[in-house]
Amino acid sequence: MKTIAVIGLGNRGGVYCSYFKTDEKVKIVSVLDVSADALKEAREKYGVEEKNLFSDEEEFFKEKRADVALIATLDRLHYRQTMKALSLGYDVILEKPVSPSYEECKKIADAAKAAGKKVIVCHNLRYTPFYMTMKILLSEGAIGDVVSFEQAENVGFGHYMCSFVRGKWKSSEETSPIILQKCCHDLDIIYWMIGKKCVKLSSFGSLGFYRAEHAPENAAVKCVDCVYKDCPYNAKYFYLKSPESLCVPYGFDKSEENIVKYLSDDDNPYGKCVFKSDNDVSDRQTVNMLFEGGITATLLMHGFANATHRITKIYGTKGVMYGSLEKGVITVETYDGKKYEKDVNKSIKGVSHSGGDERLSRDVAEYLDGGRKAIGISFVEDSVYSHKLAFSAEESKLTGKEIYPGDNL
Ligand SMILES: NC(=O)c1ccc[n+]([C@@H]2O[C@H](COP(=O)([O-])OP(=O)(O)OC[C@H]3O[C@@H](n4cnc5c(N)ncnc54)[C@H](O)[C@@H]3O)[C@@H](O)[C@H]2O)c1
Predict the structure, then answer these.
(1) What is the pLDDT of residues 352-379, one digit of tens each?
(2) Do 203 and 226 have their domain in common?
(3) Could you tell me if the CB of 132 is within 6 A of ligand 1?
């Protein structure tokens, strides 16, 4: 059994902890979080002893508190906290992105190697029955050799506006550009499935819609004050219909009255007009890639889907394989006229990320406890390479140039 110290018990930290709590291979023994609500949750939900709860980072890192550090703070803290954890001899489970700075990503990979420690990056899509089955089918030669790969990350407009217009990832400067933040998963899936390095890429994208010039006439800054009461983007209209989408602290009372009060607060970004927010990340972006062996791949991302869904289509020398992650059905058609489906829905456990979060938690716990290494497990070197594709895409988008990512980190 391995002990875990959690650094950042917010949304993501809480998801993993909810699975670790029922896994005998791991035990949550310590938590560092600056939020009193998070420490309350650690005490009440996970039974962490008072003496092992920390709000002060310096105090927490004075000594090693567990075998493994789960780092699930926001992006810009990952580098500092991972380097401290590695220097104390922790193995690390690290939320993506590794860091919004490519140089820092590389330094983390180097430090892990030098310390002889594992840094496992939370690429939860790899653990979904959908992508795991696709990976196995490919390795069995179900469609021959891969020729071309098509990945679409259709972000639901509700999710886009909550996270990327009003929410935690609205600013590239504060967190990271969306092509890294959201699509590092897609780029990782493309790289993992193809299994080769990217020779060159180009990317286009922009923030085209969620801008001041698209605000309707006389729209208010705060949606509770706005005359456009049933505008689909109106925060009050939207969150009263979908309170589960509202980002609130542990124990928040989601009654109608309390939600309206919360959205009325001048300092609350979730109550703001989507055309008057201080967001800057792209609401559409494409990446066009050439991999070794002449394999081509495209990634499409946009924030205008009715509901979030990913679609993957892989063309090979003997057939084609395709499906939607959320539907959980993979269709294989081969050029000898055969067609069959793999329905992975029965293998999906846990609701979040199409079963990826639960599988990741179980597989990582098993591996760190000395057990089997599941095929999805992604160490930092691999993740940093797929992150490199995201950094390259952002560079191409901004400069208009083709980028040559190369073989190395
Ligand atoms: N794998 C995925 O699919 C996925 C999905 C969403 C987010 N993420 C990533 O997960 C990470 C966390 O996102 P989240 O939505 O859980 O954020 P969050 O804001 O819900 O959680 C972050 C937690 O860190 C705490 N914190 C802030 N400063 C701290 C500090 N100095 N020391 C310790 N704790 C501190 C906050 O109080 C909060 O509890 C981000 O890097 C994000 O990119 C991954």
Answers:
(1) 678 899 999 999 999 999 999 999 999 9
(2) no
(3) no
Round the average pLDDT of the chain to a whole number and report it: 95
Domain that holds residue 192: 125-210+279-352+378-399
Residues 68-93 have a mean pLDDT of: 97
Indicate the burial class of 147 (C-beta count within 10 angstroms; 0-12, 13-18, 19 or more): middle
* Torsion-angle region of 293 (φ positive above 0: left; ψ -120 to 50: alpha; else: beta): left
Q: Are residues 202 and 218 in the same domain?
A: no
| Residue 124 predicted with pLDDT over 70 | yes
Q: What is the pLDDT of residue 180?
A: 97
Distance CA 282, CA 50 (A): 43
Q: Is the CB of 7 under 6 A from ligand 1?
A: yes
- Give me ligand 1 centre to Cα 16, in Å: 12
Q: Is 274's C-beta closer than 6 angstroms to any atom of ligand 1?
A: no
pLDDT digits (tens, 9 = 90+) for 216-244: 999 999 999 999 988 999 999 999 998 88
Say how many Å lie between the CA of residue 10 and the centre of ligand 1: 5
- Is it the case that residue 56 has pLDDT exceeding 80? yes
Ramachandran bin of 74, using left for φ above 0, alpha for ψ from -120 to 50, beta for the remaining angles: beta
Residue 123 has pLDDT above 90, yes or no: yes
- Do residues 399 and 142 lie in contact, with contact meaning Cβ atoms separated by under 8 Å? no
Please tell me the residue having the least CA distance from ligand 1 atom 37: 35
- Asked if the model's pLDDT at residue 75 lies above 70, the reply is yes
Take atom 40 of ligand 1 and give the residue whose Cα is closest.
74
How many separate domains does the chain show? 3
Within a domain: residue 368?
no
Asked if 206 and 246 sit in the same domain, the reply is no
Protein residue whose Cα sits closest to atom 18 of ligand 1: 10
Secondary structure of the chain: what % helix, strand, coil (to 5)?
40, 25, 35
Judge whether 78 and 8 are in contact, CB under 8 Å.
no
